[in-house]
Amino acid sequence: MKMGVLLSGSGRTLDNFHDLIEACTMQGTIEVVISNSAQALGLKKAKDYGYPAFHAVGNEATNAILLDHDVELVLLAGYLKLFEPPESLAKNVINIHPSLIPAFCGSGFYGMHVHRAVKARGVKVSGCTAHFANEVYDEGPIIVQKCVAIADDDTPDDIADKVFAKECEAFPEAINRVHELGIDYFWK
């Protein structure tokens, strides 16, 4: 599948995708990378990898670029805005969330906000969820979840590091599952 990557920051997930595609362990091709932040390091990385890379503000501008690049799957890789895809891609958007949905998810739960809440609640297991995105934060069909054990002395930064390591496994695994089973399989 032809994929578009949306990001807002450093592009660590893009790095992972690029490396796994190069190693032939992740399916698909990256056709375009778009950021809502003109200063995102991920845009520079995308250009260095040879991917078309654009800064776009708002869904309309983002969707125009995605449609121009004929993508079949949109990957939210640290994209910090609620994305509203064009109707033709409404069921074709995958997100990675840094918790085990339905815990610690929804509006306001992203990045370190999640890991601080996990620490404050004292949970013993956290993780990540790769899921299809819909019009509500973190409510689309789940594709893959990965768990991490939380030690009593783990800081929110420790938790973030553990979870990101699992995200690097879960997101590509989810993409491969979608390539294997098809998008409609998950929207039953």
- CA(first)-CA(last) distance: 21 Å
Strand content: 15-25%
By CATH, the topology of the largest domain is: Rossmann fold
Quickly count the helices.
5
Order of helices and strands: EHEHEHEEHEEH
Q: Give me the side-by-side strand order of the main sheet.
A: 3-2-1-4-5-6-7
- Outline the biggest β-sheet: 7 strands, mixed
Average pLDDT for all residues: 96
User: Poorly predicted ranges (pLDDT <50, ≥5 residues)?
Assistant: none
What is the CATH first-level class name of the largest domain? Alpha Beta
Q: How many DSSP E strands?
A: 7
Q: For this structure, what is the CATH homologous superfamily of the largest domain? A: Formyl transferase, N-terminal domain
Helical proportion, percent range: 25-40%
Question: How does this structure look, described?
Answer:
The protein contains 5 helices and 7 strands, in the order E-H-E-H-E-H-E-E-H-E-E-H. It folds into 2 domains: 1-90, Rossmann fold; 95-188, Rossmann fold, CATH 3.40.50.170. Helix 1 links the parallel strand 1 and strand 2 (29-35). With 188 residues, the chain is an alpha/beta fold. Helix 1 runs parallel beside helix 2 and helix 4 crosses helix 5. The protein is globular.
